[in-house]
Amino acid sequence: MKRHKSLLLRQLGESEMWMQHNKVTNLKLACAQVDGVLIRPGETFSFNKLVGNATRRKGYVKGMRLSNGQARPGIGGGICQLANLLHWMVLHSPLTVTQRSTHSFDPFPDNGRVLPWGVGCSIVYNYVDLQFRNDTDQTFQLRVGVGERYLEGEILAERPTSTSYRVFARGERFLRAGTQHFRRNEIWRTTIDRGTGSPVGDELIRENVALVKYIPTDVYIVDIDLSQHPPTT
Questions:
Q1: Does the residue 188 lie in any domain?
Q2: E-strand spans in the chain?
């Protein structure tokens, strides 16, 4: 259904690279729990249930975790990248996302961004989860792994499906309220008939808004009054 890969090591603001190298260790452990999993008709995938609590005893190390708008070291840090990969692939499949949370802030400028801003996930064990359900009549399989440079994944279906999908952002903009900046956009999905190649419908997946933790440059910024136009998700 969909194949994707994301760069393992990427310069993100002033974050220390050792946290990203440790992230690779954490991703290998998390991928081992997800790779090969089957999602049968009627079943729901839960990231937290499958991967479990990322603890030192299981071999997880300190990686980059986003907390209160800051990048800080924490045990198991970085496994959100796997959740991000899974969510992006699921959006290109008939699987139905039933639970997904995003970060309430935008921590880093777009440095080599490949996917639209706002399609990532926040994962906090036993509190914030990524879940998706199989409402179709066929079984899907998840394949994920850590390569030399990329986190790699694909979703497989047991037989061809009649539709494909295109996911994209609309209405990308930055808002300024006093000394604060906010980022807002909309994530849309177009369903395409595989037989004809023609679009058959558009749907709004989510409207994103987040506090920006850096100073936006080279972008169009709209000034707003928070008392009149409070940012809402």
A1: no
A2: 2-7, 38-39, 44-46, 62-67, 70-75, 96-99, 105-106, 131-133, 140-146, 150-157, 163-177, 180-193, 199-212, 221-223
